[in-house]
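Illustration 12: Ribosomal RNA large subunit methyltransferase E.
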Amino acid sequence: GYRARSAYKLQQLDETANLLHRGASVVDLGAAPGGWLQVAAEEVGPEGTVVGVDLQRIKSLDAENVETIRGDMTDEDTKSKLLDLVGEDGADVVISDMAPNMTGEYSLDHARSVYLARQAFEVAMDVLDAGGDLVVKVFDGQDLQDLKDDIDPEFQYVREVRPQASRKQSSELYLVAKGRITAPVSVGD
Ligand code: SAM
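Figure caption equivalent — predicted structure in token form:
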């Protein structure tokens, strides 16, 4: 069984957008308790690698191809730890299910969610290889279009996907950006 119901959302996103391949290198942001890590580890298999990051501690998984970092993705320190762990080969896929603690105040929750999504986009620009894919959760609202417009030129296309496993009432959706157009430029190149 999976640690979180959200595992089914990643399976649906993968079926819709063909994200996870054997041997792929995956970065999973907001990974606790680890449902997406379980799905990604299965899909990439033993030749692939999955790196998960979360504010919360992630109980270790049986899978040998998974590593985790405990940290805040809005923190430069966490970002550099992640870049070190991913290494020069870069990543094929960045997936982010990061969500803010909900206040119930709609515009605040939306703004915080967009902020986290932008962190994921920044990390993707640092680690994703050319041709790589980005999937990022965001709550619908007034700043969604701006976010989408910023992501769009970096990929072949970006679209909104609402997995059936997301609760019906929920305003959450995923931006699926396929096919990064250019490779990251490392400092010093
Ligand atoms: N995909 C996960 C799974 O399948 O188990 C569920 C993720 S849960 C919906 C959202 C996660 O985002 C929470 O565990 C939360 O701690 C994490 N999160 C929120 N803000 C974060 C931040 N700034 N840095 C790292 N993780 C963050």
